[in-house]
Design brief:
Elements lengths: L4 E5 L3 E8 L3 H9 L14 E8 L6 E8 L4 E12 L3 E9 L7 E10 L2 E9 L3 H9 L2 H16 L4
């Protein structure tokens, strides 16, 4: 199972690419169905998603919250900007750690790749400093832990 790759673009963007051995429809559904997302979108082991609101339509709201077993937690809010069912999602999000981070514009594409899916996520933040702070949180480790969980535990069932 290949891990995600991460590439810096200019001063303010991060591109994350990962292959999944599942169809684009399966990977898209796992990223948009609020009944499925808490099964895998939890980050590193020891964390769980405690709230998952996903109103999948342009202008629809997003609210996700996470907690660990030691009382720590954080959440994010956002809005969907563009939806191309099965192919592309554009949304804006901000984390509350507990103070809000600057908005992060996220474009996620689900591309057929042989017998699987190539997920390409491009995140755009307002400055190089914000991007560095985002990467310093261990974001890539948490994303890969979630994606590995998605691939091994969820995609075989959706």
């Amino acid at each position: 199972m290949p891990p995600l790759s991460l590439r810096l673009i200019g001063d303010t963007q991060v591109e994350v690419v990962r292959h999944f051995d599942a169809s684009p429809a399966q990977v898209y559904r796992a990223h948009t169905d609020p009944d499925i997302m808490p099964l895998w979108l939890t980050g590193p082991d020891g964390w769980r998603m405690t709230e998952c609101v996903s109103d999948l339509r342009p202008g629809g709201g997003i609210r996700f919250a996470w907690a660990d077993d030691h009382g720590a937690g954080f959440h994010l809010t956002g809005e969907y900007l563009e939806i191309e069912p099965g192919a592309r999602i554009v949304h804006v999000e901000r984390m509350f750690l507990p103070d809000p981070t600057p908005d992060n514009r996220v474009e996620t594409r689900f591309e057929a790749d042989g017998r699987g899916t190539r997920l390409v996520m491009t995140m755009t933040v307002p400055s190089a400093e914000v991007r560095k702070a985002m990467l310093d949180t261990g974001m890539a480790v948490g994303m890969e832990a979630s994606y590995a969980r998605l691939e091994t535990r969820v995609l075989t069932a959706v």
